Automatic annotation (TrEMBL):
One of its GO terms (cellular component) is cytosol. Residues 9-244 form the PABS domain. The active site is at D164 (proton acceptor). The keyword Transmembrane helix does not apply. CDD domains: AdoMet_MTases. It comes from the Eukaryota. Pfam families: Spermine_synt_N, Spermine_synth. Keywords: Polyamine biosynthesis, Transferase. Belongs to the spermidine/spermine synthase family. This is Spermidine synthase. InterPro entries: PABS, PABS_CS, SAM-dependent_MTases_sf, Spermi_synthase, Spermi_synthase_euk, Spermidine_synt_N, Spermidine_synt_N_sf. GO terms for molecular function: spermidine synthase activity. The keyword Transferase applies.
Length: 295
């Protein structure tokens, strides 16, 4: 099986084409699942240091040890930037981690998860229960279908849309193109906000820059943030945030996660200072994204 061939001498090695010249390895304790869905290769293994690991098409998606650094940031950067998020759509994110984080906001009344690959949900329920247990909440509705189609059927409907996608290869490629962002814009209510996985400033500035330029033609408010996470390429991943209102300032969110509050006690990475700092980019990335030339 192709996925098992990536495990050599007890180590899983990630060598995707999107970051040539470097590789990420994790020591494997036990292979828990290896199969092929309708859309992609799916592997789950118990690692020696990072707990259970979900891999899609050879790329690490989540590990139990560090997933919160990604899940909390892709969720709460958007959720706290909205004054009253009630109806939420999560596209992708079949592991359930983003849904888990969304549900921590008391204002939330409905959460829709739109995942094209049901196998991801099934293996998450079995092997990643700390994330997939969120599916038991009665506010959650699961839709096994294309996210763009679902949004076309639900115009002017959501307060926040979070796209927790894999990299722009295979079924996730369309989630990084302008037509998809146009569909998100149409599916948002007035004042709505989107947050999408935005790749890595160390590796993908040539992808990030034109994507943000396209977003600025669609949304009046656009920004870029990032978080650190050990098992993603170069230990970092970014987020594209867009708002339907020009008054939205992502680095100064509408709501503050107060120290000692009920929601802050549930969080392991995100806080208000981290929120503000996430938008302060290293100078090389800021210049590149702004279209400035290096001296």
């Amino acid at each position: 099986m192709a996925m098992l061939s990536r495990i050599e001498n007890g180590w899983f090695k990630e060598r995707p084409t999107l970051w040539p010249g470097q590789a990420m390895s994790l020591e494997v304790d036990t292979v828990l699942y290896a199969g092929k869905s309708e859309f992609q290769d799916v592997l789950v293994f118990k690692s020696a240091a990072y707990g259970n690991v979900l891999v899609l098409d050879g790329v690490i998606q989540v590990t139990e040890r560090d997933e919160f650094a990604y899940q909390e940031m892709i969720t709460h950067l958007a959720m706290f930037s909205h004054p009253n998020p009630q109806r939420i759509l999560v596209v992708g994110g079949g592991d359930g981690g983003v849904v888990r984080e969304v549900l921590k906001h008391d204002s939330v009344q409905e959460v829709y998860l739109c995942e094209i690959d049901e196998t991801v949900i099934d293996v998450a329920k079995q092997f990643l229960p700390s994330m997939a247990s969120s599916y038991k909440d009665p506010r959650v509705s699961i839709k096994i279908m294309d996210g763009a189609q679902f949004m076309s059927e639900n115009q002017d409907f959501f307060d926040v849309i979070i796209t927790d996608s894999s990299d722009p290869v295979g079924p996730a490629d369309v989630l990084f193109k302008p037509p998809y962002f146009e569909k998100m814009n149409s599916a948002l209510r007035q004042g709505g906000i989107i947050c999408s996985q935005g790749e890595c400033i160390w590796l993908h500035l040539d992808l990030i820059r034109p994507l943000l330029e396209s977003c600025r033609l669609i949304f009046p408010s656009v920004s870029y943030a990032y978080t650190t996470i050990p098992t993603y390429p170069s230990g970092q991943i970014g987020f594209v945030l867009c708002g339907k209102s020009a008054d939205t300032s992502f680095s100064n969110p509408h709501r503050v996660c107060e120290p000692g509050s009920a929601i802050q006690k549930k969080l392991r990475y995100y806080n208000h200072d981290i929120h503000k700092a996430a938008f302060v980019l290293p100078e090389f990335a800021r210049r590149a994204i702004a279209g400035e030339k290096e001296e």
